[in-house]
Amino acid sequence: MRPSGATRQVRLAYGTAGLTIDVPADATVVAPAHRKPVGDEVGAVRAALERPVAGQPLRDLLRPGARVAISVCDATRAQPRKPMLAAIGDALEGIIRPEDVVVLMA
Q1: Dihedral of CA 18/30/39/44: which sign?
Q2: Which residues, given as ranges, of the chain have pLDDT below 70?
Q3: Given the DSSP bridges, would you call strands 19-24 and 68-72 parallel, antiparallel or unpaired?
């Protein structure tokens, strides 16, 4: 347990109105880095799947007859589900049958 001491307020993106909390003055607070949205979301995800930071492109890992599970966040999380699923669907096209794909809501 931390000894009581100086605190500071931090505003969180919580719910619809936000939430202000007190944290220890010496706490490390990581704030999001907001960036300009990409124009072509599907294209950006497709490019990431074709040229990952590490490992092989998604299509190189796929084999006919394989079953694929895709996990997506539910509506309570900010995730570009629609463009992500479209780009993954493009990568699976012609290799994985639609009936061999299941989408899981996390």
Answers
A1: negative
A2: 1-4
A3: unpaired
